[in-house]
Every structure is written in C-alpha cells, then in structure tokens.
Specification:
With 483 residues, this protein is an alpha/beta fold. It is built from 15 helices and eleven strands. The protein is globular. The structure holds glutamine.
C-alpha cells in the first residue's frame, strides 16, 4: 500500500474494512522516522497516541460502530493552532512548553470526525516569514531538494504532506503562508474566504486577514477537509453565518465557459523565467480545458506589499503585547528581576523577525505616524478590495503564478527582509481582499524544483475555485517527490 494514496480512496477502503488504520499509521510513522532528520517538518510527534487512536478506529469499524468522515486519516497541524495534550509552541521560545487548555475549533472538528493528528508542524515564529527559517527550532527543508527552503510560514505543513509524512495538514495563511509552501513543495494549499473557517484557537498574528487553510496532495482532499472545517463557529464572531457548500459534490464540473483573468501585476516584471513560461503554459491549458482567458489589471497591487506589512505588523504588535511570561512562558527560577529588566529579558526571547514586526507595528500606530502609514494602508486595502470587486464583475476567476520565483537556497535571502517581503506580492492580495485563493502544483523546473499556479475567486466561491483547481490538477502529470 503506497502512502501516496488519495484521502478519498483511503477513507473508503478503511470504512469497508479493506485497510487497517493501525498498519497505515504505523507505516506513516516509519516514513516520518526515516525522513525527518533530513526535513524537519515536525516540532512534536505523538507516535504513541496516534497508534492508540488508530487501533481504536479499527476496532470501531470492526464492531460496525459509526465513525467520522475522516476516520483514520493521518494529518499534521501547524504549531500555531491550539491542541490539547500536545504543546503549541508557535516555533517561539516564548511558548516552548505551552500546552493549550482547549482545542482550536478546526482541531476539534478534525477529532470529531476521527482524523488522527500525528503531530504539530514547523513554522516561522508566530507565522511571520516566508521560508520557515525563522523557527526557533531551526528551518524545515524542501523535500524536492533539501538545500532549499520549503516556503512558509506553514513550511512544516507543506513538507509533511509533500514528503508523505501525513495525508493532509492544516496551516494558516495571513499573507500566503499556506500557498507559498504548497507551491514550493508541489502540493495543494487553500486560503479560504475570510470568515469561512473558524480562527478560534489559531494564535493570532493579524486577525483581520488570516485564515486557517488545508494543505493536501490532491484538490479532492482539500474539498473533503473543507467540508469538515468550514462553517459558522459560535466561538468566532468573524465567521459567517451562511451554510457552507458541499465542496466534494460536483468537483469534476470542469471550467468550460468560465472567464479567467490573468492578473497583469502578478505576472510581469520580476518573474523568474521558468515561472513565466509555466504561467503561459497554464493559460494555454486553461483555454484547452474550455475557459476563456483574458488579462485583468489591478493597479492597486503596486502598493499591496507596503499596505500588507503595515497592517499585519500593526496587528502583530498589539497581539504580541500579551507575551509577558506571567501567564505562560519559561521558568527563570528565582532571579528576582526588577520590572523593566524582567520585561526586557522576557521579550528579548522573541526572534529577530518577530521583533522587527513588533517595532514596525508600534511605529506605524504611533501618534503622528498613524495617519501617514496605518490609515494609508487601510485605504490601499479598500482600493484593492474595490478593484477586486470590479474584476469579478467581468471574470469568474483570476490566475497567477503563486510565487514569482522558484524555491531558493536556505540562508540565501534571510538577511534581506525587504527582498523576502516583496516575494509575497502574488499571495497577499487575497488576504487583503478577504477572497479565497488556492495554489495547485503545475510544473517542475529544469533544476527539479516545483512551480505552483494560483487561482483566486470571489468571496465564498470556494466551490467554483475548487472545481477549476481540480480541472487543472487532472490535466497535469507531475513526478512524485524525490525523497
Ligand atoms: N510572509 C508573510 C508574512 O511574513 C505571510 C505570513 C503568513 O501568511 N502567515 O507576514
């Protein structure tokens, strides 16, 4: 039995009693043990409990008892999503040993459907970054070439799914953190519409723009997970009250007659050559599949990186003010600091990127600068939203490469924050506008590195988005992961 089986197929085999969850989970744990020192996707692995849960599910099935729709599905969860019984570190020294007293809603929904959470996966500290290099536990590595970054901040999600260390993962996407690792690791990653999936129990970075999103090897598995995690949550007032669609049903409806707009500002200058030719090939493919492709201009995108980093940092600086080491944190013993020394010692434990964001955020919110930076950024955000609204009056979907460049070497850009920020140009628009966007594996470069395409849809149009992503996936044949 290959570990690279679709969740849909796996779950039906399990349900019919044709496959033992215990065996499959044991095999997955063996795989983790085999590749983890080269990849470092996981922060915490719970082998024992996973094996116990697997046995319990097998038993339930044998006894003919009712099981959940994800019964026996081995998944990983980004380590900024709260889980009881497993620490949630945010890859920060600040929360190194923190075990949450409650499950995030997305986690309790997975558990309620009998998924097996194998462990918690690596990220940039507090989800701030694009490479997973800003983890206090050290970087994750790209399974397609371990000298390269896997993308981020949900790098552990992308790596664990790509390297067959689990069947799917939950990440979080504030400015591209699900889609960037999906693109760099040749897997699928969806950032849902703001308000479709509960953020209760997601450790806040930038509340007004982030969403939890699924990562999987196949679009159909993303649809399956969305059926479980989407929907109103009384614990999160920002979730919409509408009933979510059934994303699995009619997934193969195709894209005949759909109008798809290539976003000019996401596909011009700054694209690496092979990404650019892959984009052309993707457009041709979408046309072959029956869509009509046009070019759409969203000129507010020119200001989107500046606006995103202003808003995200402002929210981060306020969210991270709570880490005072009084309610949770590390043990200093009885060193007896006076207040100021204590606070600076405690907060000195944040890593460099988080510190940079807090300083930037405090600055753009400060008296005299608020109007100049924060308010301006909010205006840009409104402008982007209105241009997106206009665009969707003429097209059904938008398309662009997910990342403007190919995966790069670990360490290559870490000392140049601005360069890293600029690489988010294609992903942050969906966050600022609140719309859904998905990254689908599309090509492998001449050097063997993955290239993903991004599709974007109007708010709550996940069903159409997934149908298009499914069409694109079905028409693409890519090699399996080399590790
Ligand atoms: N790279 C972006 C940032 O650092 C996106 C991160 C995310 O989506 N969590 O803020």
């Amino acid at each position: 039995m290959s570990l690279d089986i679709s969740a849909t197929e796996y779950l039906s085999l399990v349900r019919e009693g044709g496959l033992s969850v215990e065996e499959f989970v044991a095999k997955t744990l063996e795989r983790i043990a085999k590749v983890e020192d080269r990849l470092h996707a996981f922060i915490t692995i719970d082998s024992q409990k996973s094996a116990e849960r697997a046995r319990a599910i097998d038993k339930k099935i044998k006894a003919g008892e009712r099981t959940g729709v994800l019964a026996g599905m081995p998944v990983s969860v980004k380590d900024n999503i709260c889980s009881t019984g497993m620490r949630t570190t945010c890859a920060s020294k600040m929360l190194e040993g923190f075990v949450p007293p409650y499950d995030a809603t997305v986690v309790s929904r997975l558990k309620a459907e009998d998924a097996i959470i194998l462990g918690k996966v690596n990220l940039d500290e507090f989800a701030m970054g694009s490479t997973t290099e800003f983890s206090c536990f050290g970087p994750s590595r790209n399974p397609w070439n371990t000298d390269y970054v896997p993308g981020g901040s949900s790098g552990g999600s992308g790596v664990s799914v790509s390297a067959l260390e689990c069947m799917a993962s939950l990440g979080s996407d504030t400015g591209g953190s699900v889609r960037s690792p999906a693109s760099f690791c040749s897997v699928v990653g969806l950032k849902p519409t703001y308000g479709l999936v509960s953020r209760y129990g997601l450790v806040s970075y930038s509340n007004s723009i982030e969403q939890v999103g699924p990562v999987a090897r196949r679009v159909e598995d993303i649809a399956l997970l969305m059926n479980v995690i989407a929907g109103h949550d009384p614990h999160d007032d920002t979730t919409a009250k509408r009933k979510p669609d059934d994303y699995v049903q009619d997934l193969d409806a195709g894209i005949k007659g759909k109008r798809i707009g290539l976003v000019k500002q996401m596909a011009g200058e700054g694209l690496e050559k092979e990404v650019s030719s892959a984009t052309e090939a993707a457009l041709a493919r979408l046309q072959d599949l029956g869509a009509e492709c046009v070019t759409v201009s969203l000129d507010a995108i020119e200001h989107s990186v500046a606006a995103y980093y202003t808003i995200a940092s402002a929210e981060a600086s306020s969210n991270l003010a709570r880490y005072d080491n009084l309610r949770y944190g590390f043990d200093f013993g009885n060193e007896g600091y006076e207040f100021k020394a204590y606070v600076s010692k405690v907060r000195g434990n944040f890593g460099p990127e988080v510190t940079r964001r807090m300083l930037l955020g405090a600055f753009v919110l400060s008296a005299g600068y608020y109007g100049k930076y924060y308010l301006k950024a909010q205006q840009v955000r409104a402008m982007i939203k209105s241009q997106i609204d206009d665009a969707f009056k003429t097209v059904d979907l938008l398309v662009s490469p997910t990342m403007p460049i190919l995966p790069y070497k670990i360490g290559e850009k870490i000392d140049d924050p601005l360069k890293l920020y600029l690489l988010d140009i294609n992903t942050i628009t969906a966050n600022l506008a609140g719309i859904p966007a998905i990254s689908v594996p599309f090509a492998i470069s001449s050097a063997g590195l993955p290239i993903g395409m991004q599709l974007l849809a109007n708010s709550f149009e996940e069903k159409a988005l997934l149908q298009a992503a499914f069409s694109l996936q079905q028409s693409t044949r890519l090699p399996g992961v080399p590790i």
